[in-house]
Each structure stands twice: as C-alpha cells, then as structure tokens.
Design a protein that fits this description.
Layout lengths: L2 H17 L7 H8 L6 E10 L2 E4 L8 E4 L7 E4 L4 E12 H12 L22 E7 L2 E9 L4 E4 L6 E4 L5 H12 L8
C-alpha cells in the first residue's frame, strides 16, 4: 500500500465513522432491525472470500493487475461497502417456525454501546460470514449481511442501504451466529 492509498484509507475510515448511522434514536434502526415484519422463509448464505481472477492489466505497468469477475454471478454475493463480490460457499432456506426464530433473533440484536474516547471502525470494515434474505411469501423484505468481527451489519432495500453497529456479546447475537453456523457444518465460521 503506498502513502496515497494509506491516507485515502484513513480518510474513508474517519468519514465512515462520522457518517455511519448509530442505532440509538435512529428510526431506521426501528424499521430495519426491530421492525422486521414476520417471516415465513429466510435464505441463509454462507459467504466465502473474494471472487474473481487477477489478470495482467493491458497497457499498465509491469505487474499491474485487474480483477475479472465471471459473467454468471449467481454463486457470488455482493459485499458492501467495498463493491466486491465474494464467493458463496453454500446457502440454505429455513422455513416456517425456524425461519421466524432466526428473524426473532435478528430483531433482538442490541445496539453496540459506544464508549467515550473509542474509535469506531465504520462500515469500511465489513467481512460478513453470513447474509440473510428475509421473505414474507414471495416478497423479499431485506437482504442483510452481518459481520460479528466488525460488529456491524448492512441492511435495507436496494438503493437505500443502512449500516448499523450491534453488540456481538448479547445473547441474541451469539444465538444467531451459532444457529447460522449449525446450518453449514462443512463451512464453519469462527
């Protein structure tokens, strides 16, 4: 990473902290987390790592590479805020009462307490092991990626995405992680 890239990264992190949405008193938190409508189906996606193939950049300096994604992105998940596509290790659909249980755990996520004097890493730090698509009938309510490492999630309809911080040590967060992990014994998240 050169000096300009390092400065740009630091600037993005500071701006992310300044403009990120904090749940307390935020009506969007009530809408997208607590107010998630009843669900009869949840697609749980186990996200892998970055996708694509690095190829030499034509006309670039020696060693310059560019990332080429496959045309078919059906086995990829779009991870924001990087605008990256990551592989999908596996996915499963949970239905009925089990789907509503996952939705209830999601609704129960608690805002992360902010401690005075601490630096909050913003949405630029988002490496989710799981994504969730909540459905009511045939209607997709929300597509959400959740990162326990960075303590944040991204949720909302296309065009109006929101970043929230949650308390990963709260009972609901631990249960959501454990329940999701059980769905993918071949791809355990840590």
């Amino acid at each position: 990473m050169n000096r300009c890239q390092a400065l740009a990264t630091i600037t993005l992190l500071l701006l992310a902290n300044a403009f990120a949405e904090h749940p307390k008193g935020n009506p969007d938190y009530e809408t997208y987390i607590v107010g998630l409508a009843p669900c009869d189906r949840v697609e749980v996606i186990r996200i892998g790592n970055g996708a694509g193939k690095l190829v030499p950049l034509e006309g670039g300096t020696e060693g310059s590479l560019r990332l080429v994604l496959p045309d078919d992105k059906s086995q990829l998940y779009h991870v924001e805020p990087y605008d990256e596509w990551w592989t999908i290790h596996s996915r499963t659909t949970v239905k009925g009462p089990d789907a509503e249980r996952l939705a209830a755990l999601y609704r129960g996520l608690k805002p992360r307490p902010n401690k005075p004097g601490t630096f909050i890493i913003g949405p630029n730090c988002h490496m989710p092991p799981f994504a969730y698509r909540f459905y009511s009938g045939d209607q997709l309510l929300y597509d959400t990626s959740v990162c326990w490492g960075c303590e944040n999630l991204i949720v909302g309809p296309d065009g109006k995405r929101h970043y929230f911080y949650f308390n990963t040590t709260a009972k609901e967060a631990i249960e959501l992680f454990n329940e999701s992990n059980k769905l993918f014994p071949d791809y355990p998240a840590k």
